[in-house]
Amino acid sequence: MDNEVKLHGFWPSPFVYRVIWALKLKGIEYDYIEEDLANKSELLLRYNPVYKKVPVLVHAGKPISESLVILEYIEEVWPHSPLLPKDPYERSVARFWINFATDKGRSAVRSLFWGGGDGKKEAAEQMFDFLKIIEEQALGDKKFFGGNSINMVDLIFAWFACWIQPMEQLVGIKVLEPSRLPSLHAWVKNFKEEPIIKENLPDPERLLAYYTRLTSNLVSKPT
Amino acid sequence: MEEVKLFGHPASPFSCRVEIALKLKGVHYDFIAEDPSNKSPQLLQYNPVHKKIPVLLHNGKPIAESLVILEYIDEVWKTNPILPQNPHEKAKARFWANYVEEKCLPALFKTFWSVGEQYDKDKAEAGEVLKFLEDELQGKKFFGGDSIGLVDIVANFMAFWFRTIQEALGLDVLTKDNFPKLWEWAENYVNCSDINQFLPPKDKLIAIFPPPYMGQHLVAFFQSRLAAAAAAK
Questions:
Q1: Do B87 and A73 touch (CB under 8 A)?
Q2: Rounded distance between C-alpha atoms, residue A80 and residue A26, angstroms
Q3: What is the pTM of this model?
Q4: Nearest CB partner across the interface for A133, out of B49, B58, B75
Q5: Residue A46 belongs to a domain with what CATH number?
Q6: Least CB–CB distance from B67: residue in A49, A89, A99
Q7: CATH homologous superfamily for B4-76?
Q8: Residue-wise pLDDT tens for chain A (223 aa)?
Q9: Domains: count for chain A
Q10: If you classify domain B87-221 with CATH, what class do you get?
């Protein structure tokens, strides 16, 4: 069995992009399979029977699911161009922030963008509080979360670099304001300008159209 | 001279996970029991973001979040690895640890708060979640194989905390009949000497459940359910 790498993905997904960036930053060749989530392939269902979701990485015929698990796997198998610090303590700090973004970030996003109309202002403040912690304690005065170069923490927080804008437009609330979150705002710009990231970003217009459709479907659902 | 301290709570499953890992690796540590209603200035200094236990302090440097701590412990102390060496097997272990934490824990604990039709619904949902773990245990004594690994450590709440409260409430979500392999795993697990020294006495566990941060209304609800279950026996 050869060492073929395949990635099952879905173009609007920030979780899929994390894996794409990791593979490209490490110069790993792979085949990309676009999944239609309304009509999932037999392969996807076989590779990820528990969640039935993308991304799924398949390496030498063996599947790995869950973006964070995939990133740790990629880091382990292809350690060049490291995405995590070598020192165990520094790694634990990186993992702490990844965990924080996954846990607290997810609930902040959920209440702001998928929650009902009434609590929007409160949800926006909750999101701001979350982002403020990120800016002050995770980013600090560094250019990237990884220091002078991008690391896994940047890839996880990239949600705020590219996906937050269409959401802000849909909800009509600007969360990532340069005056309130100056360092994070600068990070967004720096992240999107990094060579490999720049060439691999979702199209903002297409993303906005996609999320517009998604949220209108939610609104028109019978209660 | 290595200094290892653990800020924890004797009845917390999250704190217990760290103790199990340190014990498996023969690491000596000082245990500092935190009172959740009166957190020490040190805890607040070492975990300013979450202000929670467990926090591991190694040579003055703090690590928070039990799963992050477990990965750190496995990287620093190489005796008795809790993660497999093979990258694909390691990824599988992380996948299941994540599944236990993200899917099982909420699904199981949800069943404590519902009654009647809602309970039946929640019980069925929890069953769907547990089915995957039942399958995963086929042909194995522990999730880690012959010995305890990361997934077993993370699933500690299932083996002891959940089953203890389930029994006190007279519920039937995870039973010997409906999940024989999981039940057998749980029995083996709580009888392990590396584990059971860290398990709190059952009555103490019940006495402090639910934790106050969950809200007083839940505390009251839980007390009434306990009383009802005791009367029904």
A1: yes
A2: 7
A3: 0.95
A4: B49
A5: 3.40.30.10
A6: A99
A7: Glutaredoxin (3.40.30.10)
A8: 468 999 999 999 999 999 999 999 999 999 999 999 999 999 999 999 999 999 999 999 999 999 999 999 999 999 999 999 999 999 999 999 999 999 888 888 888 877 766 778 888 888 899 999 999 999 999 999 999 999 999 999 998 888 888 888 888 888 889 999 999 999 999 999 999 999 999 999 999 999 888 877 765 544 4
A9: 2
A10: mainly alpha
